[in-house]
Every structure is written in C-alpha cells, then in structure tokens.
Amino acid sequence: MDPVEVAAAPPEAGPGPAWRSKCPWGAPNTASMSCSLADVMSEQLAKELQLEEESAAFPEVVAVAEGPLITAENVDTSSDLMLAQMLQMEFDREYDAQLRREEKKINGDSKVSISFENYRKVHPYDSDSSEDEVDWQDTRHDPYRADKPTTTPRKGFIGKGKDITTKHDEVVCGRKNTARMENFAPEFQVGDGIGMDLKLSNQVFNALKQHAYSEERRSARLHEKKEHSTAEKAVDPKTRLLLYKMVNSGMLETITGCISTGKESVVFHAYGGNATEDKVIPPECAIKVFKTTLNEFKNRDKYIKDDYRFKDRFSKLNPRKVIRMWAEKEMHNLTRMQNAGIPCPEVVILKKHVLVMSFIGQDQVPAPKLKDVTLSSEDMKKAYYQVLNMMQQLYKECNLVHADLSEYNMLWHDGKVWFIDVSQSVEPTHPHGLEFLFRDCKNVSQFFQKGGVAEALNERELFNAVSGFNITADNEVDFQEEIEALEKMNEDHVQNHGKKLAMFSSDGDPPIYDE
C-alpha cells in the first residue's frame, strides 16, 4: 500500500517582508511525519500521542504520593501485600484530609479551637500538604504554651562546680509545685501558673492540695446528701417509692401533705385505705419518715447502743442501719404503751425508716401540743395528774423511761394528754436511764408549776413518786450523785448476773434498786 501523506506540507519560502515569518497569527511550522495506515490504527500509537498531549498540557506533574510504598519504581505490583499497603496509605491520606476539613468547619474564626491530631492516621509532616498549610492547632506543640519544668536527673543535681543546682533548689521546687497543680480536680481552678512562671513553696502547695482534696470530698458529700437524704419537707427517691407502694397496695388512700417537721423526722398526713384481715387501718394516719441524714444521729447513739434489745445489732460503722433501728425502736415502745393503755398513737405498719401510725387530730388538723394550748385551771390540774399517772404506768408497767418528755412531746386531744415521740425511750436498766427520768421530771414539774398548778411536785419529789425510790437529798447536786450511784450499782449487777436478772418483775418493782 502506498504511503499516505498525513501531515500537511510546509509552506514554500518566498519573497516577502520579514514580519510575516514572525506573525503570531501565521501558520505554525510543523514537521511532516509519514506512516502507514496500520500504524495509524495501532493502539500503541494512540497511547503515545495521548501521553505527548498530556505532557505538553501539564509540563510539571506532581506525584500524588511519595515514599517507597506508593511509587511505581522498583515495585512489584503483582504482590497483594504491596497493593494493600498502597491502598491503605491512600485511604489514610484521604481520611486525614477529611479530618482537616472537619477541623476548619468546626473551628471557624473561634479563638478556642479543637484538633483531631490524635485521630489522624498519618502525621502532618508526612502528608503531601506544604508546611504553610499546617495550622498550629494541628500539631501537638503549642508555641504559645509555656514548657513544663525539666525533671531533675536521678543523681539529684545538674550542672558542675559553682553552677550546680540540686533538686532542693527553691526555684526548681517552686516551678515543679506549680506544674503539679494541673493534677488537681477539674473543679479546682488553678490558672496558668506555668505561663506566669509562678513559683509555689512547699507549704503553699501542700495547703492548696489539702484544700482541693477537701473540696472534692465536700462536693461528693453534697451529691450523696442530695441523692440519699430527706429534705425539710420532701423525701428522697427511695422513701417516695415506699410511699407509692403503700398507696398502690390500698393500705393508704392518699397522702395529703406535711404536718410537722423535726430534727429527726418529717410527719405526713394520709387517709387510710382498705383494712386487711390482720390489720385495721384507721380513717386518718400519720406517716413518720425518719430523716436519712446522719447529722442528727451522731450524738444519739447513747439511746440505743446500751439498750439490750438492740445492743447486739448496733453497729456504729453503718449509721444507716441505726436509723432503721431507731424507727423499729419507736414501734416497739409504742406497742408497749398501747398494751398498757397509755394514750399514744397506734402503730399500723413499719417499712424500713417509714412508720405509719394513727393520726392524733381530726380532718387533717393535728392535735395541739401542750405548750400551744390554753387550758383552764381545772383542765391544767387534770392534765397534771394524768401525766403523773402516765409516767408511773410508763415506768412500772411498760418498763420504759420517755427520756425526752416535755410539753413539746405531749398533745391535748379529746380532753386528755397523749404521749408522742418515744423513739429515744429506754428502759430503767439503761446506764443513763435514771438520769433521763430525772430530766423528764424536771421538765414536767417546771411546766405545770408555771401553769399555775399548786399541787405540782418539784422534780425530786416527782422522781421519787414515779420511780418508787426514797432518795432524801437536800439539794439537786446530792440528788444527782445518788442517782449516779444507783446507776453504777445497776450496771455492775447487769454485768455480773446478766441482762435478764436486771429486768423488772411483773408487779413493776425493780429488784436491782431494792433497798
């Protein structure tokens, strides 16, 4: 086949002006190339022509990746491992580029910026981006952050001769203490002490460390108190759950609200629900919720740790159990008083630290305390003799001493006095039982004497009348000394013969104090 002229022939040189050869709009001088039709249809020739055009259009080709894993020189692409490494490297670079875009999008113009440095697959200095494109926030080193003080070597000093510096140097220790403050709790604001080159002495650092530790413990206590304690007129979640269960079971119809608050408990009013086979629910109930805060029970363990009924179960290491025992103790004391016929609230049920009793009052209005009610002289005299009789019954028949009897713990309802709040009541055999009885007699005697009851006995006469003793002392100091001697005698008797011999007999006479 005859060759075919593919390229056009060059223009003939003829006479003409010189500027024609330099005209930019003139036809370019191209070299002629002759080839066969088979060469024109060859794929290899097409690829070569395409590469020549690409090299002419893009004279400087930047490699997409550098390094031995992704270059095509001396690489055996038939290896699957090598191909996998090349693909992984390309994926890591694309992932890092996506992280940089996310950083730029989130940070914007904010002075405070974030960095995904820890999540990058390839370190910035290995990437294909130029050094100018790497922001300071993308690196671990912050040029505006002060460097931490260098550590002292194991030998304990640095330098030589006169320039030696030991680890006990004041400046070195001060800077180290400033750096250690960053280990405090996040809630403790320490500021930028390193940037200001702050030097803290050991004394100041130890004081700050102790204060930070105390603040951390205090915040933990406040959180615990909020979650697990009762407030003034509210209950914690566990107590609320107990009350919900009582209402859902039908024992209580509804809980109306708080009627009284005290140091150790909160009292709510509720309407009784359906009666059961073994329990009669009164129409109105009083719910006494003992506070689960431990502040009020720190000094009240003396009422329970020496009571033989709870002595074996008392544990000062677990104060929350003491609170439940406190509620259980009031239930047992009220049961004794109810069996003896002493006017007091009737126990309905006890659930942990929640005690349900009958309500002393009517239509959600509680009965007034004896200190708040105004009685006539006849009623006051009647109330005094009733209180005297109830104290004697409590001591002889119930074998109890109220231990906190006063006009604040006596109610006036239906023309008679009612005793309440007997959680701290103890037996006369308690090491301080007679002291508690004398204090009760003193409170009762002073109240009724101020109320105008001429027949009211003084505290010493009232103590002898209630206890059955005949202590003849001219003054109160000698009287209390004899009481302490009787308590000592009682304690020795209990230790020698056991607690059962120390209990009162059925006729109410205390054999321990028999003279």
Automatic annotation (TrEMBL):
Alphabetical GO biological process terms: defense response to virus; innate immune response; ribosome biogenesis
Region annotation (Disordered) ranges: 124-161
SMART domains to which the protein is assigned, alphabetical: RIO (SM00090)
Reactions the enzyme catalyzes: L-seryl-[protein] + ATP = O-phospho-L-seryl-[protein] + ADP + H(+); L-threonyl-[protein] + ATP = O-phospho-L-threonyl-[protein] + ADP + H(+)
Any one Gene Ontology cellular component term annotated for this protein: cytoplasm
Gene3D superfamilies assigned to the protein according to its UniProt record, in alphabetical order: Phosphorylase Kinase, domain 1 (3.30.200.20), Transferase(Phosphotransferase) domain 1 (1.10.510.10)
Quaternary organization: Interacts with CASP10. Interacts with IRF3; RIOK3 probably mediates the interaction of TBK1 with IRF3. Associated with 40S pre-ribosomal particles.
Top-rank taxon, per record: Eukaryota
Family from the record: Belongs to the protein kinase superfamily. RIO-type Ser/Thr kinase family.
GN (gene name): Riok3
GO molecular function: ATP binding; metal ion binding; protein serine/threonine kinase activity
Pfam families: RIO1 (PF01163)
Required cofactor(s): Mg(2+)
Keywords: Antiviral defense, ATP-binding, Cytoplasm, Immunity, Innate immunity, Kinase, Magnesium, Metal-binding, Nucleotide-binding, Phosphoprotein, Ribosome biogenesis, Serine/threonine-protein kinase, Transferase
Localization per Swiss-Prot or TrEMBL: Cytoplasm
RIO kinase domain residues: 224-468
Major localization listed first in the record, in broad terms: cytoplasm
E.C. designation(s): 2.7.11.1
Listed name of the protein: Serine/threonine-protein kinase RIO3
Enzyme class, spelled out: transferase
Biased segments, Basic and acidic residues type: 137-148
